[in-house]
Amino acid sequence: MAAYILKRILLMLPTLLGVLLLTFIVTQFVPGGPVEQFMAEARRTAGRTGETGAYRGGQGVDPKRIAEIKALYGFDRPPAERFVKMLGQFARFDLGRSFFQNKDVWELVKEKLPVSVSLGLWTFFISYLVAVPLGVAKAVRAGSRFDLVTSILVLVGYAIPGFVLGVVLLVIFGGQLQWFPLRGLVSGNWEQLSWPARIVDYLWHIAMPVTAMVLGSFAVTAMLTKNAFLEEIRKQYVLTARAKGLTERRVLWKHVFRNALIPIVTGFPAAFIGAFFTGALLIETLFSLDGLGLLSYESVIRRDYPVVLGTLYLFTLIGLLTKLVSDLCYVWVDPRVKFD
Question: Which of 8, 35, 113, 159 has the most neighbouring CB atoms within 10 Å?
Answer without folding.
Answer: 35
